[in-house]
């Protein structure tokens, strides 16, 4: 039982990780967040044995923290990565956005186990992270529910026997809508996710299927798959978290209530399993539906495949353009369909950028943000 370094601890994954840690009596040696908030202070009081890493914050905010927590706390943009690079810790990376990438890289270099909830790491820099893990002997276990499901289905199987990895998508609140109908949907409607409660960007990303497109890229990088081996199926109940089809025709699936504490516990305990993280899932009376995604209405999916096919910095550009476009959509500056239009145009404007180093990934991310912001400003 290696002690946990929980980074992005004030976010949804961070808080649920602490619940699981409490439940399993798992030690927490470090916590970290981007800002010194009241919430972070409370967590620091609840876990007095943990050191505290704080990336940002004003002088006053930092001074307040230093007053209360003394030498338990370290400040600076490198502090989260430093916490992830300590020897013999299990790193839970729940940092939001590309800021999570240096944390993943630091943990990978140090040879630690990483429970990875930061999607952007694997999307923008999958090959780089895999190379670091191969060098250090570290391991990475996905916390994203779909990828945790695939990870569990693949356990004990040989890679060459896998014919398809099938990611499930709830379809979001606009399942069945045509592209015309999508033109007029509002941010309020987009923020109503039927099954999962999540942050704003990922909720909009679920409505556009951008989230699923990112997960396709994530799956390709995590499990060393070819593009044509990854499929998406719409499954509105969110009970089947994903599936794997094998060459003999067998399909394995992982099922359960939509609750992130399970993939978190799997990433902590694998190959062991914790005792009853969730109540037993009652199968009687449950009906499951599956349908093909509407790729005409939801263009994000094909754009994601295109980004994966291009490789290099294309996935990072896809991700950055989406983040800017979602922000603009929430602010009423572009329509719902405008989100994928911005992504598509940004990708066209920035072809062939490399992503072999952290600096190159960050540069592509910046370029894509500028390009997307310019496109949105020009369209207004
Ligand atoms: Mg997911």
Structure, explained:
There is one protein chain. This protein has about 375 residues and is α/β, with parallel strands linked by helices. About 45% of the residues lie in helices and about 15% in strands. The protein is built from 16 helices and eleven strands. The chain has helices at about 10-25, 40-45, 60-70, 80-85, 100-110, 120-135, 145-155, 180-185, 185-190, 200-210, 210-220, 260-270, 300-310, 315-330, 335-350, 360-380, and strands spanning about 5, 30-35, 50-55, 75, 90-95, 115, 140, 160-170, 230-235, 240-245, 250-255. The chain has a seven-stranded parallel β-sheet, with helices on both faces. Strand 6 (about 115), helix 6 (about 120-135) and strand 7 (about 140) form a beta-alpha-beta unit. Helix 13 runs antiparallel to helix 14. The chain is globular, with a radius of gyration of 20 Å. The mean pLDDT is about 95. Bound molecules: magnesium ion (MG). Magnesium ion (MG) binds near residues 144, 145, 146 and 215. Magnesium ion (MG) binds near residues 145 and 146.
What labels describe this entry?
single chain, 380 residues, alpha/beta, seven-stranded parallel beta sheet, globular, binds magnesium ion
Order of helices and strands: EHEHEHEHEHEHEHEHHHHEEEHHHHH
Order of strands across the biggest sheet? 4-3-2-1-5-6-7
* Computed structural class: alpha/beta
Question: Strand-residue fraction?
Answer: 5-15%
List unreliable stretches of 5+ residues: none
What is bound: which ligands? magnesium ion
Radius of gyration, in Å, reads: 20 Å
What portion of residues is helical? 40-55%
State the oligomer: single chain
Distance separating the two termini: 54 Å
| Tally of helical runs | 16
Report the average pLDDT across residues. Answer: 96
Q: What gross morphology would you assign? A: globular
Beta strand count? 11
What about the largest sheet? 7 strands, parallel
């Amino acid at each position: 039982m290696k002690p946990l370094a929980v980074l992005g601890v004030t976010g949804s994954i961070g808080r649920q990780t602490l619940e699981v840690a409490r439940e399993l009596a798992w030690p927490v040696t470090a916590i970290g967040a981007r800002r010194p908030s009241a919430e972070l202070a409370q967590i620091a009081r609840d876990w007095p044995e943990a050191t505290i890493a704080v990336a940002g914050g004003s002088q006053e905010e930092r001074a307040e923290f230093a007053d209360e927590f003394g030498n338990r706390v370290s400040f600076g943009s490198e502090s989260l990565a430093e916490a992830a690079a300590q020897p013999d810790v299990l790193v839970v990376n729940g940092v939001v956005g590309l800021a999570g990438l240096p944390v993943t890289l630091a943990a990978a270099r140090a040879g630690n186990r990483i429970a990875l909830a930061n999607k952007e790491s694997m999307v923008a820099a999958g090959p780089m992270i895999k190379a670091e893990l191969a060098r250090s002997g570290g391991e990475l276990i996905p916390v994203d529910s779909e990828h945790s499901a695939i990870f569990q289905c693949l356990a004990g199987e040989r890679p060459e026997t896998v014919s398809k990895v099938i990611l499930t998508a709830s379809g979001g609140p606009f399942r069945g809508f045509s592209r015309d109908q999508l033109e007029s949907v509002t941010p309020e409607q987009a923020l109503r996710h039927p099954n999962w409660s999540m942050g704003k960007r990922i909720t909009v990303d679920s409505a556009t299927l951008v989230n699923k497109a990112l997960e396709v890229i994530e799956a390709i990088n995590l499990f060393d798959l070819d593009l044509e081996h990854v499929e998406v199926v719409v499954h509105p109940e969110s009970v089947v978290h994903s599936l794997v089809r094998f060459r003999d025709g067998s399909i394995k699936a992982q099922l359960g209530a939509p609750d992130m504490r399970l993939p978190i516990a799997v990433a902590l305990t694998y190959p062991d399993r914790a005792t009853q993280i969730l109540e037993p899932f009652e199968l009687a009376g449950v009906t499951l539906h599956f349908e093909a995604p509407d790729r005409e209405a939801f263009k994000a999916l094909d754009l994601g495949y295109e980004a994966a096919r291009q490789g290099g910095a294309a996935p990072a550009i896809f991700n950055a353009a989406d983040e800017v476009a979602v922000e603009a959509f929430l602010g009423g500056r572009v329509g719902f369909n405008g989100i994928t239009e911005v992504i598509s145009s940004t990708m066209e404007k920035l072809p062939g950028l490399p992503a072999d180093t952290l600096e190159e990934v960050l540069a592509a991310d910046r370029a894509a943000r500028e390009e997307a912001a310019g496109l949105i400003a020009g369209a207004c």
